[in-house]
Design a protein that fits this description.
The protein is mostly helical and 135 residues long. It is 53% helix and 10% strand. 24% of the residues are buried.
Length: 135
């Protein structure tokens, strides 16, 4: 599955939590989300500018570059449901329940465990969540 096909598949199944998703579909959509967020942040910076705030906190000088994140917030909201859906389908492909997505709420350790689960190869044949995804 190529980049364009994976993005179209995930966006057309944006709220489909049943079924299975192969590794390429999942990782291409993750890459699409990263690129979309970077572009939205760049557009936010260009369109809305930013301010530089210098503050003394926690025993050190900090420089923060703040700018409104209107577009990146819209992108985040628009891709939230498709990301959860493709994550659920990816976990289904490995024979695991989508409830494991709640591991995202556990900082660092939960993320690493979830990363391990989605990186595993999918089941070769049909499992409890359906037939294998089309290649």
């Amino acid at each position: 599955m190529d980049f364009q096909t994976a993005v179209k598949t995930c966006l057309s199944n944006y709220a489909t939590f049943d079924g299975r998703a192969a590794r390429p579909e999942f990782w291409w959509f993750v890459l699409f989300g990263i690129i979309a967020h970077i572009l939205a942040n760049m557009l936010d910076q260009i369109l809305f500018g930013g301010t530089v705030v210098h503050s003394y906190g926690h025993g050190m000088w900090m420089t923060m570059y703040g700018h409104p994140r209107f577009l990146s917030s819209i992108v985040w909201l628009a891709l939230l449901l498709p990301n959860l859906a493709v994550g659920a389908r990816r976990l289904h492909d490995t024979g695991k329940t989508a409830w494991l997505l709640l591991l995202m709420l556990v900082p660092v350790l939960g993320w690493l465990v979830l990363l391990y689960f989605v990186a595993q190869p999918g089941d070769a044949g049909a499992n409890a969540y359906g037939p294998p995804p089309a290649a």
